[in-house]
Write a sequence for this structure.
């Protein structure tokens, strides 16, 4: 199997991690505390000069993409991945909320090949997400390297799977790593990522995700393992926060009194609702509600124009952490 990350090729061609251009993304929070003293700065300089840091130096690939909190796809965040290749099938990444010196470590992502993922038990697969849409949508970037090299890198990543935990929720303006880790997921279809979030990132990096998407049309889409992206089937895995340090994304699983025990939210059949959108004609809205084995309920909402072939999938798809009622009207756009 070819390497998932083109570390060697990038090094030979002179594409280094520092080749990020002027794409500065600062941390969204400032940690409390006193400024460094002269003594601390001297000790830090000595450590830089005298200590070897092989694990840190191995972080030689930079990826930029987006995550959302499992069970709350409306809670979305940009994530800066600094990654190292362990072998042909495993990559590990440290995730930051920016790409400057003040960036906070938000969490980690582990990336494995399709071969390794296939051997995982079903319960474990539910914690992982696919990378097909992230690559094909043009939303996953490798900043600083020529687009032709980036495309080769994406060919390696498109068939992989990631498990991501965020430990410092700076997107919720937490100035310290409060609460508990949260499982994150990746987008799987157009219309899920906040366009404003993507546009702001694109402007900062001077790129066009839509153009990237078009240029990646010839990247083959591998068959995805049905065990990944389990939230799409209503299997939402998340950790309740027992500390009382609540975030907006924890409402569905925020403590014993608010958890829904498995079985309390019975599986409901899909419901079809007629809808009409100006300029687009009649459509069908499908709503399905189900309960996972992990004390969380989820609903899916799909919008499909009448006469649209089933093989093409719905035009819009949304997921919710809690059951929802049928909308009064189809989504605009």
């Amino acid at each position: 199997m070819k390497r998932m990350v083109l570390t060697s090729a990038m090094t030979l061609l002179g594409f280094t991690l520092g080749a990020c251009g002027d794409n500065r993304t600062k941390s969204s929070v400032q940690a409390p505390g006193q400024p460094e003293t002269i003594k601390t700065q001297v000790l830090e300089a000595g450590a830089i000069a005298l200590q070897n840091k092989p694990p840190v130096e191995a972080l030689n690939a930079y990826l930029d993409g987006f995550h959302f909190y499992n069970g709350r796809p409306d809670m979305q965040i940009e994530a800066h991945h600094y990654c190292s290749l362990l072998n042909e099938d495993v990559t590990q990444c440290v995730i930051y909320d920016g790409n400057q010196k003040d960036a906070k470590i938000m969490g980690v992502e582990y990336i494995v090949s399709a071969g390794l993922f296939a051997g995982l038990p079903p319960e474990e697969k539910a914690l992982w997400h696919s990378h097909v849409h992230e690559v094909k949508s043009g939303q996953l970037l490798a900043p600083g390297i020529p687009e032709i090299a980036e495309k080769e890198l994406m060919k390696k990543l498109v068939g992989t799977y990631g498990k991501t935990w965020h430990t410092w929720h700076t997107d919720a303006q937490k100035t310290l790593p409060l609460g508990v880790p949260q499982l994150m997921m990746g987008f799987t279809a157009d219309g899920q990522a906040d366009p404003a979030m993507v546009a702001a990132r694109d402007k900062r990096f001077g790129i066009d995700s839509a153009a990237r998407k078009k240029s990646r049309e010839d990247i083959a889409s591998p068959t995805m393992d049905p065990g990944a992206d389990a939230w799409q089937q209503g299997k939402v895995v998340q950790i309740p926060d027992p500390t009382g340090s609540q975030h907006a994304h924890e409402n569905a699983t925020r403590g014993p009194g608010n958890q829904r025990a498995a079985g309390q939210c019975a599986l409901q059949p899909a419901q079809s609702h007629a809808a009409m959108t100006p300029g687009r004609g009649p459509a069908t809205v499908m709503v399905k509600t189900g309960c996972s084995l992990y004390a969380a309920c989820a609903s899916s909402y799909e919008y499909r124009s009448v006469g649209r072939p089933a093989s093409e999938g719905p035009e819009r798809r949304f997921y919710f952490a809690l059951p929802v009622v049928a909308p009064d009207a189809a989504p605009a756009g």
